[in-house]
Amino acid sequence: MAFDTILVANRGEIACRILHTARAMGLRTVAVWSDADADAPHVTLADDAVRIGPAPALESYLDTDAILAAARDSGAQAIHPGYGFLSENADFARAVADAGLTFIGPDAHAIEVMGDKAAAKRAMIAAGVPCVPGYQGADQSDATLLTEADRIGFPLMVKAAAGGGGRGMRLVADAAGLPDAIARARHEAQAGFGSDVLILERAVQRPRHVEIQVFADAHGNVIHLGERDCSVQRRHQKVVEEAPCPVMTPDLRAAMGRAATDAARAVEYRGAGTVEFLLDGSGNFYFLEMNTRLQVEHPVTEMITGLDLVALQIAVAQGAPLPVTQDQVTLSGHAIELRLYAEDPARDFLPVTGRIARFAPATGDGIRVDAGIATGQVVSPHYDPMLAKLIAHGPTREVARHRLLAALDRTVLLGLTTNAGHLADILRQPAFVAGEATTAFIGDTYDGIAAPTPDTRELACAAVLLLQTGAMAARAASTLPDDSLLGFASDGGLPVPVDLAHGDTVHHLSAQADGARQWVVGGPDWTHRVTIRAMADPRAQLVVDGRGMAVGFAPDDAGGLYLQSGAQAFHLTRHRPWADAADAAGSGTITAPMPGLVISVDVAPGARVQKGQVLAVLEAMKMQHQMRAATDGTVTDVAIAPGRQIETGAVIVTIEEDTE
């Protein structure tokens, strides 16, 4: 079991997270990378890095042979799988062991049992762990699933047996929606996990999602490290996690902890694992699944226990006993984690791709940022859209929440749309502040999310920063003796027109310099005086009408500007009126909002369609996305076919709009 070199079979923030701890332990580290990640931070962080294939995950991060070859060629004796990709693949764990390497995680048997929701549920029922009523049988025919659904009752959940992360999962309200849910869940499950086996479960209404962190060693010791509340989730994908759970009691924690450690013992578990439960309003809890790996949200447990879970994983894999007993585990304070995604909340959380213009994470007391991105990096469509995690710890939940809000404001992330503003709004919602959020929280709170718009102060700041950066660039290329002449004009200066577009809205502004670092900016019915107090990329300290204002900023490549005010970011472009005619064309043309694989085409030329009707389904960033008609009309052309990979902006369907 002894090893001195670890290969991390992953990418992004979790690869960086593992590499940091491994190097701190004095171990040599090896990263792997695909063509899409050649310049990614995890590649340069490791002592050695090996290319394992092209960008698609199936040809790189999911290629067992390529990863084992990388371990052999680099001299690695152990492999840490992180989370996602091959982390819960029993065949991969078995292949690592067969190659004479150490797999930093449980053995193949535990992964096999617990990684299959059907097998896991059968094992938990046998071990006496409370489970939700459902069907987890081998007969996967549509007829059997329909019959079992009638027996269980509606609403119910359709789940991929091998799934995780919300993929291959559907909530079904009634029998009419079941056949389509089964078909889509199967397809997503096969694409995401290589298995289309499903289970059915009664839907527990409005529960909390509470999970217990367990740890076991090879010496028979099994402990738990308290719980995490992961109830704030969208489409079964966790968004906010915290520890401890706001409604936890000592008796309930002890009962859930016993059930979780019983679950681990039932499969002779070793290493870090998480046993997930649904907790109803009466204090009853039911086994949901066990994740046989490190969780995305493990930092909140680390912050309240003071333990490094990756270091514990490595030590256990080397044969060491756990350094603490159950009685020695103490929970201190409160921690909350947010997941920053490349997605557009105003467009139904559609994943986005693009180049990161600026990334500067926050620092401060109780703040931790786990990230695997850097300025200039391109976010591709090939992997999960999570960019980073922001975590805050404090002596109380309120202190942690306020620290996290401040960290969101101070973390500059510009260049592509993210969910940062939405996360800040979640933290301010009364139900979240009161600790009352259940898994229904987001659905109950948000009925669509409007795209944010800049106010007049933000517009004025954007105009000043654009003009000031331009003036500074000109100054750098000139022979001016000093900056005191910037903005000087013998006639006092004339207003400069600055027309900025945000989305479809054009703001006609004018700005006039009043010395080297002061400007007067006006719109149709407003005026602001802006003073530049400090300006150091990517942040600026401004004074607007006597009030301080801190913003993040980054010029784009076309004369525009990315501006971040608080947690909300805007992209303001220089208005080009000559492009209006071209931009207005093609309102009946549906184009791809992101690169993706065409899964299905649901219309044909000549078909009549209604606004909102599904035209095609794309798969990108591990999820399926339905492309819908924006208008009533008749399909005149279908430009795609199932199985085709298309790029952003590719024409999908052309519709001749109804004129009546």
From TrEMBL:
The keyword ATP-binding applies. Residues 2-447 form the Biotin carboxylation domain. Keywords: ATP-binding, Biotin, Ligase, Nucleotide-binding, Transit peptide. SMART domains: Biotin_carb_C. The keyword Transit peptide applies. Signal peptide: none annotated. Its cofactor is biotin. Pfam families: Biotin_carb_C (PF02785), Biotin_carb_N (PF00289), Biotin_lipoyl (PF00364), CPSase_L_D2 (PF02786). Residues 581-656 form the Lipoyl-binding domain. Residues 121-318 form the ATP-grasp domain. GO terms for molecular function: ATP binding; ligase activity; metal ion binding. CDD domains: biotinyl_domain. This is Geranyl-CoA carboxylase alpha subunit.
